Amino acid sequence: MTPPYIRIVADIKRRVAEGELKPGDKVPSTRGLARDWNVALATAAKALTLLAQEGVITSEPRVGSTVAGGPARDRTPTPSDLTRERIVRIAIEIADAEGLAALSMRGIAAKTGAATMSLYRHVGGKEDLVRLMADAAYGEFDYPLPLPEGWRARFELSARGLWALYRRHPWLPHVTALTRPLIVPNLMRHAEYALASLDGYGLDALTRQNIHVLVYNYVQGVAVHLEREAQQDAATGMGDDEWMDAQGPGLAALEASGAYPHFAAVVAGLGDDYDLDLDAFFEFGLTPLLNGLATLIEPST
User: Crossing angle of helices 185-197/126-138, nearest 10°?
Assistant: First the structure.
């Protein structure tokens, strides 16, 4: 079966070829395509990116996507228009919609209307760009003042703040490994906040560091599934409910085999009500994690 984004691309090309969409005309937005074709936002964004890469459309800030070849405007940014900040912003928009795998210097150039090589005057390459993107994204969350009292309230604030960032930017938890942390100022700011929250409890340096890493890893570990969920939606064209319905026969066979009685009993107990909602799962795990840490941080209470 032809992937949904390819069908969208083919339809836009047909409309352009037949004159229904003329040079300079606006094409449907990501949300418009998602609504009209009943697909995920990531799928619609992937179609628009491919159209831009093939030169069918161009995209401009505050204008949107239009059919290429319109006579009304010069689409080549001036040197003052093409800045590191603008490149990073566009790269984040692409990654938010399609994931890091879809990010390329060529795709960013298509979005800006600039030559690909001109981007390298502002960033050192994709690796450098991803580092700048991560720093910008981690900088979007500011800890409100005054800070809450006590380590637990502060860790709850930090964990939920990071979760909100990962929700907004599903690619973000994938850019750094736990054993090879990304050294950027705004991620270091989150570490500084967490370590400061443990000050005054008589903990040694190793214990404070391990607690900080444990909570950070919990949030990151759940959040890595956000982008995978979006990627699977785009690749299959099916939402979670549709996908689970398709797995029904296989699950029923496993239950009926008798080899997995505990699994079968749990599935029977859940019925059709269980939905692995990542937001709810994150909250479910955060409370017992902090309860366990309380016995280490405040053993006498």
Answer: 40
Q: Do domains 76-138 and 151-237+271-297 have the same CATH topology?
A: no
* CB-CB contact of 211 with 203 (8 Å): yes
Say which CATH superfamily domain 151-237+271-297 falls into.
Tetracycline Repressor, domain 2 (1.10.357.10)
* CATH class for the domain made up of 76-138: mainly alpha
- pLDDT by 10-residue block (mean), the chain, 301 residues: 83 89 87 87 83 79 70 44 88 87 87 84 91 94 89 95 93 89 91 94 95 96 83 56 70 83 84 78 95 89 50
CB 154 within 8 A of CB 148: yes
Residues with Cβ within 8 Å of 65's Cβ and at least 6 positions away in sequence, in order, are 26, 27, 29, 48, 51, 52, 57, 58, 59
Nearest to 53 by CA among 12, 93, 113, 133: 113
Select from 283, 274, 180, 282 the least CA-distant residue to 224. Answer: 282
C-alpha to C-alpha distance for 161 and 245, rounded to whole angstroms: 34
Integer CA distances (angstroms), 256 to 261, 267, 269, in order:
9, 12, 15
> What's 101's DSSP letter?
G
* CA separation, residue 21 to residues 8, 57, 206 (Å): 14, 11, 63
